[in-house]
Amino acid sequence: MNRALDRQRWLGVIALAVAVPLPFTGVVSLPFLVPFVVVAGWLVAARKPVAALPVWAENVLAPLVLVAVVVAGGMRYGILRPVTQLAIVLATIRLFGCHDEARARKATLLLALVGVAGIASSTHPLLAAYLIGLLILVVAVVGHFEMAKGRSGHGRGGSRLWPPVRLIVGTVVIAVLVAAPLFVLLPRLRSPFAAAAFGSRPVSGFRDAVALHRIGDVKLSTSVALRVRFPEGTSLDPDWLRLAGTSLQRYRKGVWAQSQMRREVLETARDGSVTLAPAPAGARTDRAEITLEKRSDSLFMPLGTVAITVPPGLSAWRGPLGEIRIPRWTDTPISYQVEFVPSAVVAPPPQPGDLELAAGTESVAELARQVAGRSRTPVAAAIALESYLRRNYTYSTSTFAPMRDDPVNWFLFQKGSGHCEFFASSLVLMLRALGIPTRMQAGYAGGELAPDGEYLVRDAEAHAWVVAWLAPSWNDLEDLRRSLDGGGPIPAGTWRMFDPTPAEGRPGIGRAPALFRVDLSWQRIEQVWDRWILTFSLADQLDMVQALVVGGYQVVRWVLAVGLALLLVFVGVDRVRALTRRRRRKRTAATRTASGAALGRVTDAAQRSGLPLPDSPTPRQLAASLSERRPDIAEPVRWLVDRHESEAYAGGEASARSMVRRAARTIIRALGRRPAA
Amino acid sequence: MVASSPTAGSYGESIYVSRFAKTFPGFTLRPTRAFWIFVSSVPVIGVAALNTGNNALYLMLSLAMGAFVASGALSRHTLKHVSVRLQPPGEVFAAAPVHLRATVSNSSPWLPAAGAVLRIEPGQVELVAPTVPPSSSRAVNLPVIFPRRGRRPLPTVRVDVILPLGFFVKTLRIPQQGEALVYPRRFPSAGARLVSLGGEETERSLERTRRGGEVELLREFHPGDDVRDVHWKQTARQQRLIVMERRESLLPERYLVLDRQLARPGDALQLDRFEDLVSEVTTALLDRLRRGDVVGLVLGSEIHVPAGGMQQVRRLLTRLALVEPVALGEDPLPSSVGESSVYRLAEGS
Hints:
B: about 350 residues; alpha+beta; five-stranded mixed β-sheet; disordered N terminus
């Protein structure tokens, strides 16, 4: 193939590859993207080199490009978008005539810029696959051109113009293996940031923590927060699949504060169970197994929970409003079982804080009285207020109250739209204004029913609602108020749940998709991606360093302990061996006679003098051999052997050491001399 | 024949090359344009990643650096496992292109050797070797020119590897064992004209006196044929020139003589002239032996009796490949060799 045409074609392919993530990131708007893709496709399909645009046309286009970028938003959405749009238009123009090497080089530079912008704007887990695919393409194209260069330059060479698959695979594998630790080690000095479409919308799955004050992010997250299973089935109304994590009582300056007072450590039975409240008389209870998948500072429970069984060793305590709190850094998943009364609310009795109204909520109280009108019972008034909020206010996740205004006032009297926290907060304040003890609860409502009967509760199911203590009559509420003020008995009444959020904002029960397992696996990948790629930060790096240090310390400690133990064992064994050796030596020395020692020396001397002796000769063999070879020393040798045998085996008296020594010396000296001829 | 390539370069031209060669003995490397682009763009991406905290940029940066390492490791691996062995051909003449058979082996158990460029030093030829699968070998022919006759060592082969990503040209020199016997340079055969040693009688005149013999075949006239061999009757009959080819009953025995004696053996001009003479004798020898003549060779006092056939060709070419000049009087020519005709190259031929 013509080399210029080849270059044009493969540059077109690279341009198309670069364009892949752009439609999903929003970093380039479609009017800029479409011409780019069309030109790239044309280059790939063309059978002849495409000519460059005339210079005058490029000159005319230059100001038009700038105008187009400005019209498309300019710097309104940050710097990345206009730069990328400018680059993609310039790349589109430069792609014409890219069969020419110089133009191709400039176009490649622009394509690289567009590619980097596209990658920087991507947050999807498929970005990893895309990068690997891009690397494969680059390796293949570089190999193709290098091999073609070698062939065309000299008219001969290999017939294959593509690098072998193994080379490509090897390159990618090694690159990924090297890239993984590099990604972890490269310093993160800024907080993790992912550019999103148009630079202002939150990114799906980007936020890790459940934070109700930023519910907009949470509502877009599909991370699984909880798994709930009813092992014995349940008669629970789908609308009542609500798992409360926090009950909130105190409202000050637009913020719901959690009470940190009166913590009560959970006293669990041997099996880990704790009875939280007595079940109402005659009420049927169900059991649920709940797994907390995400780190949290509380255990989420159904509203009618009367008992909980926590895993052994879990540090947990009970808050003043009945919630079960755990340390936030507790490792997940945490599995626990609860026993609950379906479709009922079980909570500690009303407290003075349940009637507190913050300053500046007079207008809210006035509105509550207007809406409740002449309701004959507290229940009717609560239902009226719930309906009023559902009907007259709209649900929105992108509502953020101004800092100076009270959010509830702003929601009720100005904005008219908000998320569940606004609705729940408004209802709490309105009910309290009517003298009804009320709390706001935050947790999860609804879930996704999997084929195996398990409910998956995701971040998006985060919700807030209201529980109110309702007495049969207004007089009972007056009695309650007096009791709370004076400490008298609390009149009869029950807690009831109200959800003032309109239907579109109330999570419900959904069915899992057909490819549930695939979907679930993909969600796990997304979670890992979000947690360990997109939001990987300096804190994570420091955690890793700390873990490494701690792990290293543990290893060193373990190695030292093992080394010390081995050393002790070694020393002990050595001492034992030394003791054994010494005893044996003593025993040997005790049984050894002076004549025996002298015979040993004589044997050594005979061997040194070159006399042929058997290996390890017995005293008699020694005597026989020496007598035969050296008759001149036969007599002292025989005497020495006789003495030795007498002393060692016949219980004879020990010979005088001087005599033995003299005999041995005579023999050894004689052995040192030549024998007499 | 000698081709320059963008990847070719003189060695030791840069400090980093020699430093690298010292640090990693066995091969040299030279950065390419892709390397410089990479080196200049990676810090930009790095600063962008650091400044924005964008982990996608970190991911791309890591992968780019990983690809750089992978490229270096794999090209090094390829170079480490590639070996080249040259096999000289049977007949090599100086200053004439010859194809050396190069066997490229790849001892890597898993990675094919792809895109390796073979060069014969010093800078004679460049050739992209075919992809060699793991643990196997492939043969290619490398066109080479040996400039001088004699026993010449086989040239060093240079292997350049640039794949997979072309950040560096990594080069390995593979010296070759063995040598090639290079025969003297050949001239166009028309350039050699012989005269008798005994007088001014030319070969042509000698041929004339010996014309005759039986007619072996009739064939069409080719330019250069003697007009006296035209068979006029057949020419008139067939209306085209027909010549007779005769076979002499007894082939004449001839000697070619090369005087090794030079007045000044150290003089470059005389040495060049001697080399030319050797080439001319070689040319004449081949010309006649391949025509079927019986030819002998006189090299100073050394006499090779006339004979024909390929064995004689190899014997005489080998001798001519190795002949060296001597000073005057060291190796005089004989005045005559038996009864055979002895010729020398005529002046100006």
